[in-house]
Amino acid sequence: MTFEDDTTVEPCGPDCACATSDDATDAEAADDDTRSSNRRGAVGAAAAGAGALSALAGCNSDSGGDTTNATSISGSGTTSADTGGSEETESISFTLNGEERTFNVSPDTPLLYVLRNEAGMNGPKFGCGLSQCGACTTLLGDNAIRSCVTPVSSVNGKEVTTTSGLGSTEDPSALQQAFIDQQAAQCGYCISGMIMEAESFLRENTDPSRQEIKQALNGHLCRCGTHNRIVDAVEQAAGER
Question: Where in the sequence does UniProt note compositional bias of the Low complexity kind (predicted)?
């Protein structure tokens, strides 16, 4: 789903027809398994919700090089320095969330791989690897870019910002707080990219209409269907600037 569709998708309830069995005997036999599955699902949903709110508040920190929550990504199972078309490495330096950083990597390694595998950033996500979903969006200066298709060499000497560069869990930015207030996240996987796109947009347009917000975010995919809440959050943040 994209922002061209105003429909908000809500999770199925326990009485939803799509969850009922045509065979009453099978349904009765599966009842115990369903209760167990529901308990596991509830725990998983709670954990996912907590993780989504953490992402909104920008807790994807690279302090101390801790990469516990930054899942390594690679198209071939190799390290990020080995991904891409070249095996030669170079020293690439850029400002990441206000801090000068240097990485010894292949120059054509996607910026996303360097952010996650080398810098320990878990805000930008690997979604499609084709610049189609927006989950990897970061800022290059004031401009939103798709880091999954951006060679790290192209940001040498420049300024890159992820969600943790906007605010922290203790002190989120107005935009991050608006996403929390509006409960814009369900699974939360797309939210980091949404926030970075919205941040770039609001730096250029401080008083957007609802339709302009939708157009700005229309290149981002959210399969959970929380589009209306996301637009509400951006509207709230725009009103506070």
Answer: 67-84
